[in-house]
Design a protein that fits this description.
alpha/beta, Rossmann fold, 6-stranded mixed β-sheet, 6 strands, about 15% strand, globular
Amino acid sequence: MAKQTWPERIWIVRHGESAGNVARDAANASGLSRIDVSERDVDVDLSKLGEEQAAALGQWFAALPHAERPNVVLSSPYRRAVRTAELIAAERGINVPMHEFVLDERLREKEFGILDRLTRVGIEQSHPEQAEFRRVLGKFYHRPPAGESWCDVILRLRSALDTTSLHHSGCRVLIVSHQVVVLCLRYLLENLTESEILAIDAAGDVSNCSITEYRFDAAQGANGGLALHRYNFIAPLRNAVAPITSAPDAKVGAR
C-alpha cells in the first residue's frame, strides 16, 4: 500500500485584485512608462473589488463540509495575499485560526529588479537591452538585474513543496500567492516542460481569487502523488456575482 507523503488536497489561490492591478491597467491604458504605486510591493493591499472576490471565495469554501475545508494555510507574506487569506477565514471558509497561518517568503511574488514598476513601454524605453535579452532567452530563463527568472522562483518553490510534504502530509492545504507562483507550482507538481508551462501561461492569465486544486492519488507512483483536479476555477466568483479580473501585478509590464 502506498505511503502517503503528500497533503490530501492542495488549493492554490491567486490573491484578489490589488491596488497594483488597478494602477497597472491605468498605466497601460494611458501608454505610460511607469506604474503609479507608492508603496513597497510587499505592502500593496487589495482593492475594494479584491476584497469582494476574497469574501466570495471564502463563502465557497465555507459551503464545503467542515471535514473538507482547508486545515493548513500557507501564504505569501505580501499584504494582498495575507489579506485574501484573512477574508477567506472571516467567512468561515478555513478550519484554522488566523494566528496559525504560516507566512512563507518562498511563496512571494517574482522579483523584477530594475524592471520593477515599469510597463512594457517603460522597459523598452529605459532598458532596451533587457527587452532584447528577454526576447532571446525567453521569460523562463531571463533574469533582470537584481531580479529573478522563472527558474529562480521554481528553485525556491521546490524547497517550499518539500516543507509542505514533510510537515503537512495528509492535510488539506490552502496556498495563497501570486500569478507566477501558481504557474510555477503547476510546472513542479505536474512535471511539465518549459514549453508546456509557457503554453498554459500564453493561453490566459490566472484570474484573481481563482482556484487551482490538486488531490492526492494513490495510483500515482510508488507513494502516490498529487493529480490536478481543476485549474483557474472561477465559479465561486460567478456564483457570488463578484467581477472576475486577471490583470498581472503592478510590478512590471511583462511577467
